[in-house]
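for ur thesis appendix - UPF0225 protein GCM10023081_04700. copy paste whatever u need, i formatted it the way the template wanted (i think)
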Amino acid sequence: MDSEDRCPCLSGETYGACCGRFHAGYAAGVWPTTAVALMRSRYSAFAAGAADYLLATWHPSTRPVELVLDTETVWRRLDILRIKGGSPFDERGTVEFAAHYRHDGERGVQRESSRFVREDGRWYYLDGEL
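the 3d part is after this line
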């Protein structure tokens, strides 16, 4: 994904100015400061195929050993439906979303209520309910 492309999270920013900066900088400590920003960046990581970023932002207590992304799934749109907590001053947050995709020519929507925790100043994806 080119840094000048529109960001997959549909923030209106370019990928490089939005989620791409987290994907490129997480190893150097560039992390989202809110749960919703982490949610958006994780959605964009699915769209961009950045499995390493997804694993790095997954809480160690629930993180899988490996993550294989389905390259046939094309992520089309992210709708944030509800946000509870998750500010830079909170320790926990919940983001409910609908992620629209295409797979084998069929449209689909994944709806989830994701839980996030902040530890040592970094937000992590903990788990979610479909």
